[in-house]
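Record type: monomer structure entry
Structure origin: computed from sequence
Chain ID: A
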Amino acid sequence: MNRPYTICYLNLSMEGHIDGDFGRLPEAAPATEVFRQGWLEMHADATIYGAVTMAMFAAGRVGELPKVQKSYPREDYAAPCETGRYYVAISPDGGIAYDSPTIDVRNRGVHGVIHVLTEDISDDYLEYLREHGISYIFCGKEKLDPVLMMEKLYSQFGLRKVIISGGAYADWTLLSHGLIDEIKVMLVPVVDGDPNSHTLFKRMEGEESHPVALSLVSAEPVEGDGLMLTYKPKNAR
């Protein structure tokens, strides 16, 4: 299959949490800065986020939308975009709000947006995306097809290298389907014991267990007692 080279890249507490209070301590700052610089140096064409994470980068969750009278064909839509870089939102049921066709956060520069949908999405939300200049692709009728998603990102948008960076369900979806080539995580020297934090990967409740074996590529100590770990999943397509 033709798909982008995909790197799972996240900043973690020592117990593997991807969110929580651990980043607030000053001891987390040096390794986190190395992590952020590494993000820029990868020069990825896009960053993929799950719905919850993407809502934090966009404009939150959308409220009730006006009802539309027209019916849109379930065909992919590419809005004009001059940036050449994208944020990809995996949110098949819609729900993410946008203020504009681009997002510029964390000193990463301006990115366009590609929203991943399933065909059972409402016409109301399709019109909302078009009004805001947001591209979208259909990847499944009622259930997300992550393989089709990656193929379309490659063929229709020319994405050759992408980062996936949460949440835990999105990370696992790609990993479990053999769609991640490299796992690169920064362990910062902090623990928080948060019982509500997500770990790096999490499968949906009721989903059958299919563990994935990894090969260690490197373990690199960084400034501030952090540790950058790089693994290759053995199930990569």
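Annotation 1: The longest helix spans residues 29-42.
Annotation 2: The radius of gyration is 18 Å.
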